[in-house]
Amino acid sequence: MRFARCMSALAVSLVTACGGSASSEDAGGNDASSGSDAGVVVRGPTRLALEGDPNGLFWDESDGRLLVADDNGNRILTWTDAGGFTLVADLPAVGGSGAGLGQVVRMGDGTLVVTRFGFGTAGDVVYLREGESPQIVPGLDVERRRIGLTVAPDGALFDSWFVRVASGDRVGAVGALGLDGTEPELITGLVKPVGVLATDADLYIADQDLGQILRAPRATPTELEVVAEVESPDLIAFGSAGAIFTGTVGGQVVRVDAAGAVSIVAGGFQQVRGVAFDPAGRRLFVADHDPDEADGVEHAIHIVPVD
User: For 157-211, what is each residue's pLDDT tens digit?
Assistant: First the structure.
């Protein structure tokens, strides 16, 4: 890994040392990936370097760990304060342009599920039950470029995708996902729906091309309304008090509160993809993607304190 790029703080106390080592350290200088202090909760600001390209992130409250969909490695990783990064599973190989991992989630029974983009020829969803090998959900439309995924409190799964039509335009939708291979469309008329979240009552969608965070009742999903305007939002995660966090292609992390007000939490990143919120640790994990590999790859995960 190269040294971290110099990052400017655009809001609320994100301070990243310019020219510092790309090793994973917390603010106190303890090596967060070595487990040298098992009692430490790293709140940041901190940069976690890894050999991979993190995309979807998910904070697993039940086990106190971060789940990471590593796009470069076509694998799922986990990170803890004490143990750092470890491999959960390598995923089945994909031909063509590659897998393109999206969001990863953990279901109530411990099953891990992750979407794979597939670039129009190999889109699918993979699930991993404890003690078993990863399995591809059967029978899904491989032309659907899946990115977003969420598990509702009642255990229902929803995913988001888009397809390319003959004109080259994107046509996006949100569906109800079954691990048996069912995936009926619930919300249509979208363009590039990247992130999706579910509560007992509602679905929330981040459409990157529309620049909007939208909401629809699960009971009547065609009743779509705009919650907030956010430039180029990516994957989304719930925060506290009904808030939603998302990153942007422009390198910012923003918070949309329950009333739809938008505020910048942090900035100066390259491209923000996945985000995950740890309520007990009052911290946000940020997947920072390097779009320009000509001068060396600098993908990373950042930890940002959130109060």
Answer: 999 999 999 999 999 999 999 999 999 999 999 999 999 999 999 999 999 999 9
Domain residue limits, the chain: 51-267
CATH 2.120.10.30 fits 51-267, yes or no: yes
Q: What tokens appear for 82 in the block?
A: 């004490």
The alpha-carbon radius of gyration of the chain (Å, integer) is: 18
Give residue for tokens 């979208």.
Answer: 190
Distance CA 134, CA 142 (A): 18
Q: Comparing C-alpha atoms, which of 218, 266, 214, 210 is closest to residue 236? A: 214
Of 260, 264, 205, which is closest to residue 236 (Cα–Cα)?
205
Question: pLDDT per residue over 140-171, tens digit each?
Answer: 999 999 999 999 999 999 999 999 999 999 99
CB-CB contact of 160 with 150 (8 Å): no
Task: Supply the DSSP symbol for 294.
Answer: G
H helix or E strand, kind and range, residue 2: none
Query: What pTM was computed for the model?
Result: 0.88
What pLDDT, in 10s, does the model give residues 4-15? 333 333 333 333
SS3 184: coil
